[in-house]
């Protein structure tokens, strides 16, 4: 059975699709717990902070950095050109 590889256009589409999937995953992950279970008609004290729940900003930053690192880590090998050596074999240089 012949091993089939993706062509350049298919690899670019795969990288873009992965980026979109990771973007929506990041939005979902960073918004966990940020919505209060009650509406805006509740009493709010003027002395309360602006933190309305959810994750701390540094946790959201770490989540985004991990998702970006995952995207880059998958995209680089996927988009890397494989060069042919003089014998007609693939080399991973």
Notes on the protein architecture:
This protein is mainly alpha-helical and 93 residues long. It contains two helices and two strands, in the order ααββ. It has a two-stranded antiparallel ribbon with strand order 1-2. A hairpin with a 5-residue loop joins strand 1 and strand 2. The longest helix is centred in the first third of the chain and has 23 residues. 0% of the residues are buried. The model has no long low-confidence stretch (mean pLDDT 79).
Radius of gyration of CA atoms, rounded to a whole number: 22 Å
Strand order of the largest sheet: 1-2
Average residue-wise pLDDT: 79
- Apparent shape: elongated
Order of secondary-structure elements? HHEE
Number of strands: 2
Low-confidence stretches are none
Could you give the topology of this structure?
Layout: H1 8-30, H2 57-79, E1 83-84, E2 90-91
Antiparallel strand pairs: 1-2
Describe the structure using short key phrases.
93 residues; two-stranded antiparallel sheet; 49% helix
Report a brief summary of the structure.
The chain is mainly α. It has helices spanning 8-30, 57-79; strands at residues 83-84, 90-91.
